[in-house]
Amino acid sequence: MTTRDGHPADEAAGSPAYDEPDLLRDQFRQLLRYRWLIALGVVLGLLGGGWLGLRGADSYAATTEITVRPLPTDSSGESTSAGEISMGSERRTASSSVVAERAARTLDTRAEPARLLDDLQVTNPPETRMLRFAYTAHSPGAAARGADAFAHAYLDNREKDAADRVADMVDRYEKQRAPLTKERDRLAEEIASSGKEGALDGTLSAHSSVVSRIAEINGRISDLRAEDTTPGRVVTEAAEPTAPSGPGLPLMLGLGAAVGVGLGLLAAWVRLVFDPAVRTPGDVVRALHAPVLGTLPRRRRRGRRQERRSLLADGRLAEEYRSVAFRLAYDETFARRRRVLVVSPRGGIATALAASVNLSASFAEMGREVLLLEADLRTPSLTERLRQADGIQPGWARAPGHGTIGWPAGHRIPIDAGESGVFDLVPGYRVSKVSRALTSSAVTQLIGHADERDGVLLVLAPAVLSYADAIALIDRVDCVLIVCDPREVRRDDLARVRELVAGAGGSVLGALLHGEGAGPAAPRGGAAPPPSSPARRTHAGPRETELTRQGVALRVTGR
What we know:
alpha/beta, transmembrane helix, membrane, P-loop_NTPase, rod-shaped, transmembrane, disordered N terminus, Bact_polysacc_biosynth/exp
């Protein structure tokens, strides 16, 4: 037997080995289940892109370029060699608060210098002595004025710095020259008043040395005053931009949508990782270590009168039940005992109840003698929702088997399944001690009698994780069919069901998946729904048609 997706059953019973493309496709389909997260990410991305696009629509950038000329002295006052300049230091100086204050005075603005620096960008093209001032403002004129103001402020600051360095050096040399000038004058007076020839020679030598030192200092002062302190020159004046500097609203919306899709997929992936619910048939296979035997098609929501329909399915839903029955019939594990326990993991059993009835009808159509045992002794309802086959006596399960506490009862009810034929029902009744009734010898004899007659036994029990009723029957029924909605059951629940079934000595044949609207409507307030035509019946009898038209509820009583 193979699973619904084509994998062998023995492979699905273990951990299935998916090819990488199949696994990626499965994960992508799971991510698409959280479309609202992806849509939310796209909306947020579009809003962010639109805001940035609109903000950049009224932003204009103007650029001024200048060349930087080396200064004659460095910050320590020492003379620099020709061509020596640090463009990294100059770029940092151009972005300093001192230059920003000069530019603010030039622009005559009330904005803080630090705020002006936020709109300025100074760059140095590689392998050049150029600085590029790019200024952003809300109007073309303001952008051009800002770029020019910062460029000229930088040049003025650099020129003032150079002039201050020259003046400082000149002041130092003048301070060195002052004592030498006094010494020179003193020696000159001494030479004029001296009359000894030997003493005059020494004075003349000292006077000559002082005069030479003074001349050297005067030369340095002259050189410093003659130095060109031009800091640089403007190469390109800022022109008023004709278009905004932003990338544009359409581009920003596209980028925002792309980023939003990425964020949405990331959020969906995180949600998927921490989501305990089963989302795909693959998750069910991995949790149960058993194949998915079928997936019931969803029914469209109809009126309340049409929802209160017969348990017997028709159309696509009936064909899916037939497909599951055929898969079970050719399963080696099922063929040995032909017993199936139909249960749901937790919650209500409305869909499990419909599955047990329709699988019984499908096996009856295959020519098998079928017995449906309603082991739901808490809320039994099958006798109120199924039609007894008129004029047909119970078959192979007719032997009496009264339980010690009233269940199972001694009568069996033949159920008319339309064109599929007839199957027998052992209805459930409310009892005071459910556990004793389920483990009684009468139930064991009934199950064994069904096995002897080469028939098919289907047992309907409450949810495995809600009550222990199903666990009490596993050692005699052996095979378990799980009926669940993959969107409402948790992976931990399925793993727990598998452990309980294996611990009780049974095996999980597979899972039957359903979605909202796939199962029948449960009766409300204990009232039985009006019967409709049975599954796969094309021509209803006169009595049936009349009863259906009048909406009379048939209650089947035991014989």
